[in-house]
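Late entry, written up from scratch paper. The run itself happened at the end of the previous shift, but nothing got recorded in the book at the time, so transcribing now.
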Amino acid sequence: MSTVGQLVPARIEWNVQGRITRLTRLDTRSTALPVVLPGFIDEHIHGACGHDVMEAHAGAWEQIEHALSRHGVTAFLATTITAPWDDLMAVADLARQWTPSPLSTCIGMHWEGPYLDRQYKGAQPLEAIRAVNLEEIERAIVPLRHAERPLRVMTLAPNESSADQAIRLLTDHGIHVNMGHSGANRSQAWEGMLAGADAITHLFNAMAPLHHREPGLLGLGLSAENLWLELITDGIHVHPDIVRMVFQLAAHRIILITDGISAIDQTPGRYRLGQWMVHVDGVSARLDDGTLAGSILTPDQSLRNLLQWGVPLREVVQAWCEAPARRLALGGRGRIEEGAWADLAIFDAQYQVLSTIKNGHVLYQR
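Output as recorded:
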């Protein structure tokens, strides 16, 4: 069992409500015990198993849930891509009306866009990127305050006109704001942070590079203690050396994500990301021009990668489990302790998932 990343032999008991009632230390040195970690929380994922969040269909989202449970995920945010407004509203309607199982792992939405910097669009469709419109934002978010799956996070570019006002509006409604897909300089990023933005979307990717005389969004993220840092650890989006550096600088602020797309658990081929069809070669997902378009990373593979790269298990667990739970105020999630929910990912000695448990109920068993 892992308590905040420290492995100890223990028995975990929980009640019928799914709350952990007792942790009992075992007097054993057996290496045959499975490894039990808190369930993974992925706050930035677009799809899996051939399905995309932008399908805006309950059946597709349920299939994504089922696929992610095979990888130890007990909570995730269904993440949009920049798209025509009607398509975003269709996703919002589903989030508002969908009444899934009590054991659903989809806990809300993350809107990546549409208020982004066209120069740093990455795989976001250029034609669907919009100028910030405060009235439009308010009309969209007010009905979502009490949605079954609320809007919890929005990514926007802090250097766009009226971005600081949009950030204040969103945070006033309890929505976290990520700064990303942006060429913001340090001053613009600072203003976004002062307005209430509390995280940076997929650090290093789709933003201006670090310069010693103009730190920009990236430099601010590495130095500002009150910003969470999303990080993709597939070894492609960010080199392992840089991943290790970020953990050395800011392990307590990292939120690991996959930015996964519909090609997760699929064979190489062409798969959907919003309106795009992307090429997947078994390692990465790219647009026709070679631009990275999300990933096919899974949280358990991220865990194995990070351990291989020398990142301590306790820091990996914090970044995959405790940090997103703290940021999103998911009380009783992300930790293994008495009183917490029994959201667990169980592994063999090679960190392959054996089973996934949500609120004390088995979602997946190998």
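Residues 39-332 form a domain with the TIM Barrel fold (CATH 3.20.20.140).
(Scratch paper discarded after transcription.)
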